[in-house]
Specification:
Layout: E1 2-5, E2 18-20, H1 23-30, E3 36-38, H2 41-72, E4 76-81, H3 95-104, E5 124-133, E6 136-146
Parallel strand pairs: 4-6
Antiparallel strand pairs: 1-2, 1-3, 5-6
């Protein structure tokens, strides 16, 4: 049975590809999960329309992310931590701590978008990237100071 792919699939192909698969695989897996349409002329037009809508949505999301990135350019966050002798921190500063500090400033950012290679374990000033969109990244300054 021939089907037209609605989305990129690792083992089958890319959006819009017409591929030959076994009828049971198409009927029981690809079509119910909306991965593919049966290969008919009217479905080709539907896929083209879906692609246009996806592209429009992506562009809109990117513009929103760019606006948020501009507003985050001059944002800095101060996080107070308790320290012991010789300014050794108890624990570390994580993405959750940074997210909470941003929330106190009325900036709602999902903590999963905050990119830290590893938790911050020393006092100082850090530039922390925030991945707002696959193509848009903003950086904020995080000041880690003792209480």
């Amino acid at each position: 049975m021939k089907v037209i792919l609605r989305e990129d699939h690792e083992k089958l192909g890319n959006i819009g590809d017409v591929i030959q698969v076994k009828p049971g695989f198409a009927r029981n897996f690809l079509i119910p999960r909306k991965i593919a349409y049966p290969a008919r002329a009217n479905f080709v037009k539907m896929i083209e329309e879906e692609q246009r809508q996806k592209e429009h949505r992506k562009n809109k999301e990117k513009k929103v992310a760019e606006e948020v990135a501009k507003s985050l350019e001059n944002v800095s966050v101060t996080i107070s931590v308790s320290v012991g002798e010789e300014d050794k921190m108890f624990g570390s500063v994580t993405t959750q701590d940074i997210g909470e500090a941003l929330a106190k400033q009325s900036i709602e950012i999902d903590r999963k978008k905050i990119v830290l290679e590893e938790p911050i374990k020393e006092l100082g000033i850090y530039s922390v990237p925030i991945k707002l969109h696959p193509e848009v990244e903003a950086k904020i300054k995080v000041w880690v100071v003792k209480e």
